[in-house]
Specification:
Blueprint (H helix, E strand, L loop, with lengths): L1 H8 L2 H8 L16 H4 L3 H11 L6 E6 L6 H18 L3 E6 L6 H11 L3 H7 L10 H14 L4 E3 L5 H15 L11 H4 L2 H14 L1
Parallel strand pairs: 1-2, 2-3
Helix pairs in contact: 1-4, 6-11
Length: 208
Amino acid sequence: LVFCMEYFANNFNWLEESLGHVEDDYILFDCPGQIELYTHLPVMKQLVEQLQQWEFRVCGVFLVDSQFMVESFKFISGILAALSAMISLEIPQINIMTKMDLLSKKAKKEIEKYLDPDMYSMIEDSSNILKSKMFKKLTKSICGLTDDYGMVRFLPFDRSDEESINIVLQHIDFTIQYGEDLEFKEPKECEEDKSALVDEYFQDHVNE
């Protein structure tokens, strides 16, 4: 995979010819999920810079499986992975919890607290894994950094819920200002109270 990505980075001329320059193009790159490509190699950063030179507006969409995020220590791991990609690519990034439709009612209720987390209270309520004396200061620093600066937040994505899909798409369109010459777009959460939307989403699924 590393060889393929490096070969790709040395052949951006092929990419330019394949993409073309058609007005209002909306292009999706399904990137490999291996975090090493974003933390150990410059190839993804080179791709972003090349696209920007070609005057494409670029937004990163970081996907994390919601089934992986139901425990505090796994959630913190997911935050670090998202944060490392944000720092590496230096572009606007939307973080998504995917496969919400596969969670049980109980899991959906549990994961609600991770969409807009209070990291300090999470440390207090978490299992002994996060309370390990050896990593206590490190864990507290990571949680403090995330909480104080609000650097990583997640949107729920449920493919069976059209409203959930529209909210994610609105955030992405707003970030790249897709079609801004026709109509100015804002995410739905900017028009309504975000917490109310999240509560409504989970309430609907609990009642089902």
